[in-house]
Design brief:
Blueprint lengths: L9 E5 L3 H12 L3 E5 L11 E2 L8 E2 L26 E2 L3 E6 L5 E4 L3 H6 L5 H13 L1 H8 L10 H11 L3 H5 L5 H11 L12 H13 L4 E2 L4 H13 L3 E3 L15 E4 L3 H8 L5 H8 L6 E9 L8 H4 L1 E6 L3 H12 L9 E4 L14 E9 L8 H11 L7 E7 L1 H7 L15 H5 L11 E3 L13 H13 L9
Parallel strand pairs: 1-2, 1-10, 2-9, 6-12, 10-16
Antiparallel strand pairs: 3-4, 5-8, 6-7, 11-14, 11-15, 12-13, 13-14
Helix pairs in contact: 1-9, 1-17, 3-8, 5-8, 7-8, 7-13
């Protein structure tokens, strides 16, 4: 139920990324007077669409595909469609080209996906069916801090039995190179080596999301998601202050709660001497993920994939085999520049005509690189596309490149180009930075907190829930 202001409580939110906006909406619905401060001229954080190449071409500068947004226990309670958001579901959520000219794909239907996997059809069904049978409630537990009793312990235990494996260990149960490659591409979204404990979890959750609610894109670009959240927030009576950088907590007005959509290291800087040396040391020690180097293209035609499935896919994973993807992710972790990087690519204009002028298309691709790298990986990224789509370079009309350090300059939350809010290692997943900080009334709500990266808003919702309890308000509920 959407409610407006009805209490004397106030909150300030620093940062207008999806988690900052989620925290602001959650508190505004509870009647808190909320003010959001954003340093940039445009709200949205990584939910921003920009004209990066040619006139009329709209590019998602940050997040562009939303596997967890429609399924999010918090976002699905919001009437975002009434505020202008339209989700578009590609025919094929994810395609994975292979070196023999064929391809495999993650389809909406679990049986249709299994039919592409030959001898591994039964195994795929064994993995997916239990997840899908309890998906909404299971996802609510999966997107909650792990150091708490889950609402559905037996369902979470079933997921954990597989998710705590390394991606390599779980893939060893597969017989075909096709199925192993498909799973590697999914698991590698976590930007950790596929030999690492719990690296299988990302692949399982993303696969189940595709079968359940899909991997949609937002009509008009990812800015549309932020704009819908901002519209709802303003309807609830909140204030949004743009071009207002915050260098210190002292710069903020008095409020009952301060919620910060920033990384722990940025929080240490904002807090200054309000933190002890030991507290600052712990917060500064959060391990970062590899960075990302991203290329946006304006194209004269659709990408000329060799096989049919990628031509119908919203997202395409490029890396060929499990072994090649595993090597690329090891390199990123070890600060080595991979010669054949695993590439995540999206081609939204195939499904959304607003993204490019008639007769043209847009696409983007990125790869994991050493954190803080200044190197331009566009040549290697394009080599990977050309490998599976001969003639691709002939379609490029313009390109825009952001290196890992450029990504941080564009959005200071992306430290060294880290787009996950910190390394998704098992230790950091379990001990993900808590929402309550050592400073009373100050909370972290960024993707550095539980449950971690992805546009789902749950980091913001959990932080808002903690703040509401501490302000003596009724406990927030996902209804």
């Amino acid at each position: 139920m959407i409610r407006g202001m009805n209490s004397s409580k106030s909150a300030a939110v620093v940062g207008s990324g999806p988690n900052g906006l989620a925290a602001a909406i959650a508190l505004a619905r509870a009647g808190v007077h909320v003010t959001v401060f954003e340093a940039a001229a445009q709200a949205g954080g990584c939910l921003r669409s920009e004209a990066l190449t040619l006139p009329g071409c709209i590019h998602d500068a940050g997040a562009g595909v939303f596997p967890l947004a429609k399924a999010s226990p918090f976002l699905r309670t919001l009437p975002l469609e009434q505020h202008g958001l339209t989700w578009i579901e590609p025919d094929v959520p994810v395609a994975h080209p292979l070196d023999d000219g064929d391809s495999v794909a993650l389809l909406h239907d679990v049986n249709a996906t299994a039919s592409l996997l030959g001898e591994d059809a039964q195994r795929w069904n064994q993995w997916m069916r239990p997840l899908l049978a309890s998906w909404p409630s299971l996802l609510q537990d999966a997107l909650s801090p792990l150091l708490r009793i889950p609402r559905h312990p037996f369902r979470m235990a079933r997921l954990g039995m597989d998710a705590l494996h390394s991606a390599r260990n779980l893939a060893n149960h597969l017989r075909t190179t096709r199925a192993k490659a498909l799973f590697a591409g999914l698991a590698a979204h976590a930007a950790v080596p596929l030999e690492m404990t719990a690296s299988a979890g990302e692949g399982l959750v993303l696969a189940a999301a595709a079968h359940s609610t899909g991997w949609p894109v937002a009509r008009g670009g990812s800015q549309s998601v932020a704009n819908a959240m901002l519209s709802l927030l303003q309807e609830l009576g909140a204030e949004i202050v743009l071009q207002h950088p915050v260098a210190s907590l002292r710069d903020l007005p008095q409020a009952d709660a301060l919620l910060l959509d920033v990384t722990p290291r940025q929080f240490v800087s904002l807090a200054g001497d309000a933190l002890s040396q030991s507290e600052a040391k712990v917060l500064s020690a959060v391990q970062l993920s590899p960075g990302a180097c991203k290329v946006d293209w304006a194209l004269s035609s659709p990408i000329p994939w060799q096989s049919e499935l990628p031509r119908r896919a919203g997202t395409v994973h490029l890396g060929g085999s499990f072994e090649e993807i595993a090597a690329s992710e090891r390199d990123g972790r070890n600060a080595i520049a991979s010669d054949r990087p695993y590439v995540l690519l999206s081609q939204p204009s195939l499904f959304d005509a607003t993204r490019a002028p008639a007769g043209m298309h847009t696409a983007w691709g990125y790869c994991h690189v050493p954190n803080g790298s200044t190197e331009d990986f566009s040549q290697r990224i394009e080599d990977q596309v050309e490998r599976f789509a001969p003639g691709f370079r002939n379609t490029i009309l313009a390109r825009h490149v952001r290196t890992a350090t450029d990504m941080e300059r564009w959005n200071p939350n992306l430290l060294g180009g880290d787009i996950t809010g910190g390394a998704m290692t098992l230790k950091q997943i379990v001990l993900r930075t808590r929402h309550r900080t050592p400073i009373r009334g100050v909370y972290l709500c960024s993707s550095s907190t539980a449950p971690g990266g992805g546009v789902h808003g749950m980091c913001g919702w959990h932080a808002a829930s903690a703040a509401a309890v501490d302000m003596g308000l009724p406990r927030l509920r996902l209804t």
